[in-house]
Amino acid sequence: MNVTVGVSNHHLHVTKEDLEILFGPGYTLESVRPLNQPGQFASSAMCQIQTDKCTMDKFRILGPCRSYTQVEISKTDSYAFGINPPIRESGHLDGAAVVTIIGPVGKVTKPCCIIADRHIHIDHETRAKLGLLDVNEVKLKWTHPEKGGILDHVQLKETNPAYFEVHLDTDDANANMIRNGDVVEIIKD
């Protein structure tokens, strides 16, 4: 069984309240392009992310607004920032690293920075059809002339509806020569 790869660069999700602190009262997110997951989009809004060690520009806000504010970075980014965020499922912010999000109008400082886990977006029907109802984690296998391999600890993230796709961060993708749109094999343990 195969799945298409979506490579995820660093980005953030925000609450409506934090969006208005960052961009001003009444500000709404404007879509510049839809994402594969139903109802989600890349917005035109960008922020800076700051720690005591580093400030990085051009972190895109993905919409729509969420019930939590979250900054997703790679392990490589964490070295530049001088922080050690946990690997977490989106929305699970226990132990998240503290960062400051800077917008054109205001800033927000909170423990909201994580490294997103490897995960497959899958709906219940597809999960049942593929015989994956009894597992929460799989492996991925891919071939490449120089760097084929296997990735462990890929979580199944069931949502309905869902676009069937695995999300890898830029570190996983770059280290393994995997590109956005590549197809990899799911291995059930």
- Domain unit count: 2
Q: Measured on Cα atoms, how large is the radius of gyration?
A: 17 Å
How many angstroms separate the termini?
A: 13 Å
Query: What ranges have pLDDT less than 50 throughout 5 or more consecutive residues?
Result: none
Q: Give helix and strand order, one letter per element, not per position.
A: EEHEEEEHEEEEHEEEHE
Largest sheet, order of strands side by side? 1-13-10-12-11-14
How many E strands?
A: 14
State the share of residues found in helices, binned by percent. Answer: 10-25%
Shape: globular
Strand percentage: 35-45%
Number of helices: 4
What is the oligomer described by this structure?
single chain
Q: Strand pairing plus helix content: what structural class? A: mainly beta
Task: Explain what you see.
By secondary structure, this protein is mostly beta strands. The chain has two domains: 9-116, no CATH class; 119-187, Barwin-like endoglucanases. Helices cover 14% and strands 44% of the residues. It has four helices and 14 strands. The chain has a six-stranded mixed barrel. Strands 2-5-4-8-9-6 form a six-stranded mixed beta barrel. A hairpin with a 4-residue loop joins strand 4 and strand 5.
